[in-house]
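Q: Please design a sequence for this.
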């Protein structure tokens, strides 16, 4: 069996359990493609899984686990049911929550339905940055809350991976965008299309009254109860962080929106679904100039532990990239 360099864990723990060494090259299943990975990006789910606190860790395959879900690279073989993609195609994609992660490696097998063709003018790092964070915001704003032109959206955590795509997509949809970030990142958020920024260290948006059609809490620090007064009637609160409370609130949201404290308001939890078609939408937006990936920093695969430390600091501006090959 051929081997490859990969960042993997054999037990849960802090960054010291993250190994960079040899693992077997995966064999693509019949509906998968095998990618020579050029670049991958880190999402908090990678280190949450490493630390054994990822809420869906039971859905991951057993140890050793090669971490990483987002990747961009070139197809080097295709499973027998794959007809729409060919060896040599440049693609980018995201592994599902269930099964293998595996992007932080020289080669990765991934469902063909979870990748899209990478346009030539988008480099592998920008493409690898996009899948999980970008699709989370696309699926939230387009599908979950149906953000409309002229609505006001507050994005809490606007300068990170998910937030930096959210600001741009909300802007492209014609919304008035209020970005919550540190003062240091205000210019970044404005350059991405925010109409207004709020420094969360000096102002608490939860004390605003009746201002927002949507509160998109990318960083999961608020809640429907805390954001209730800031939301307008008919307002929608969305969290990306699956705490037990938001899971319950989103299940009962249709009922609680009818009466009582949350009357006229709904609460939602987004759980991103890897879809090649959505990646293609974002690639088109990039080609049209309405979307870009913000790259915080780039590390070699050997330096994955340092990259993980940076991600765990919650201070990255946009995305952290692992450059795997040329
Ligand atoms: N449910 C899903 O399907 C799904 C999908 C993707 C991600 N997620 C989750 O979404 C969360 C965000 O992911 P991410 O990739 O965007 O993380 P990230 O890029 O690591 O977030 C870093 C950003 O967080 C900001 N931040 C830190 N503390 C803040 C605070 N108190 N208030 C406002 N902003 C703050 C920082 O901005 P400043 O430096 O300006 O403070 C920084 O720009 C994670 O918990 C992740 O697991 C869930």
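A: Design:
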């Amino acid at each position: 069996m051929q081997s490859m360099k990969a960042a993997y864990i054999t037990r849960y723990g802090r960054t010291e359990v993250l190994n960079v060494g040899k693992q077997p090259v995966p064999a693509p299943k019949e509906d998968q493609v095998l990618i020579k990975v050029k670049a991958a990006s880190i999402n908090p789910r990678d280190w949450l899984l490493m630390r054994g606190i990822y809420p869906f860790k039971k859905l991951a395959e057993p140890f050793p686990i090669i971490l990483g879900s987002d990747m961009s690279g070139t197809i080097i073989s295709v499973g027998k049911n794959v007809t729409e993609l060919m060896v040599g195609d440049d693609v980018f994609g995201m592994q599902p929550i269930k099964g293998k992660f595996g992007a932080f490696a020289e080669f990765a097998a991934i469902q063909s339905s979870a990748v899209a063709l990478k346009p030539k003018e988008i480099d592998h790092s920008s493409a690898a940055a996009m899948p999980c964070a970008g699709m989370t915001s696309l699926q939230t704003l387009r599908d979950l809350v149906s953000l409309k032109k002229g609505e006001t959206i507050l994005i809490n955590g606007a300068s990170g991976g998910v937030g930096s795509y959210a600001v741009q997509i909300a802007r492209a949809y014609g919304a008035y965008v209020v970005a919550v970030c540190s003062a240091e990142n205000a210019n970044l958020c404005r350059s991405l299309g925010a109409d207004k920024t709020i420094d969360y260290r000096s102002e608490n948006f939860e004390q605003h009254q009746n201002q927002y059609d949507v509160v998109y809490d990318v960083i999961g620090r608020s809640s429907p109860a805390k954001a209730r007064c800031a939301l307008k009637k008919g307002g929608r609160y969305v969290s990306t962080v699956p705490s037990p409370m938001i899971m319950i609130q989103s299940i009962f949201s249709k009922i609680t929106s009818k009466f009582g404290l949350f009357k006229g308001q709904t609460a939602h939890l987004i759980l991103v679904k890897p879809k090649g078609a959505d990646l293609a939408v974002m690639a088109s937006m990039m080609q049209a100039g309405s979307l870009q990936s913000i790259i915080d920093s780039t590390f070699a695969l050997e330096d994955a532990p340092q990259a993980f430390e940076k991600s765990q600091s919650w201070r990255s501006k946009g995305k952290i990239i692992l450059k795997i090959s040329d």
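Q: Thanks. Anything notable?
A: The pocket of NAP is lined by residues 43-45, 132-133, 136, 156-157, 159-163, 180-182, 185, 200, 218-221, 240-242, 270-272, 311, 314-317 (CB under 6 Å). The first helix runs from residue 44 to 50.
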